[in-house]
Amino acid sequence: MQIAKSSILGRKLYAVLEKRPGKIDSINPGIANNLVEIRLSLHYTHARDDSHA
């Protein structure tokens, strides 16, 4: 792999995996064409301190 390509890959991986306050993670970044589910549950956990859950 060329150095430029590995550098781009590294930046993309960092952007995807980086945890930041208020960041909305993508559930399906092009992995599946259809995410239809009969039932979906979301669970919110409030942080005990100033950090984000």
General description of the model:
The chain is an all-alpha fold and 53 residues long. It is 28% helix and 0% strand. The protein has one helix spanning 3-17. It is flat, with a radius of gyration of 16 Å. The protein starts with a helix and ends in a 36-residue tail after the last helix. The relative contact order is 0.10. The model has no long low-confidence stretch (mean pLDDT 80).
Strand content: under 5%
Question: What's the quaternary structure here?
Answer: single chain
Q: Provide mean pLDDT, rounded.
A: 80
Which H/E pattern describes the elements?
H
What class, by secondary structure content? mainly alpha
Count of β-strands: 0
Contiguous low-pLDDT stretches (5 residues minimum) are: none
Largest sheet: none
Shape: flat
What does the radius of gyration come to?
A: 16 Å
Distance between the termini: 37 Å
Tally the helices: what do you get?
1
Q: What is the helical fraction, as a range of percent?
A: 25-40%
In short:
By secondary structure, this protein is an all-alpha fold. 28% of the residues lie in helices and 0% in strands. The chain has one helix at 3-17.
Q: Which key terms come to mind for this protein?
A:
mainly alpha; 28% helix; 0% strand
What topology emerges from the helices and strands here?
Blueprint: H1 3-17
